[in-house]
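To fix ideas, we reproduce below one chain and its tokenised fold.
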Amino acid sequence: QVQLVESGGGLVQPGGSLRLSCVASGSIFSIISMGWYRQAPGKQRELVADLNSGGGRNYVDSVKGRFTITRDNAKKAVYLQMNSLKPEDTAVYYCNGRIYSTHVQWDDYWGQGTQVTVSS
């Protein structure tokens, strides 16, 4: 079994910064990709950023130039540095990991979510 544990959410003023962290643990054979999704009230969950094992990064257009995703392979962790935060960034942020638990079996795993609120 694989677990993803997030931390780092909170309340911040517009223009401020936050750093989200997510650590994977459990039965991990290898990690295909890790990333962050978010879901605002009344909206569908959307991809914010992800990072694959080859180092390729994807960002949703609305966060390009403001958010940066990084990964620490040794710690099986992924981070999301969020700068110049806007009220529209307010959402529950979920860590996602596409992970092989054996050499043939992979699944998508999710963290419990962490609230990010951008408000003055």
Q: What stands out?
A: The chain has no helices and eleven strands. Residues 34 and 45 are 16 Å apart (CA to CA). The mean pLDDT is 96.
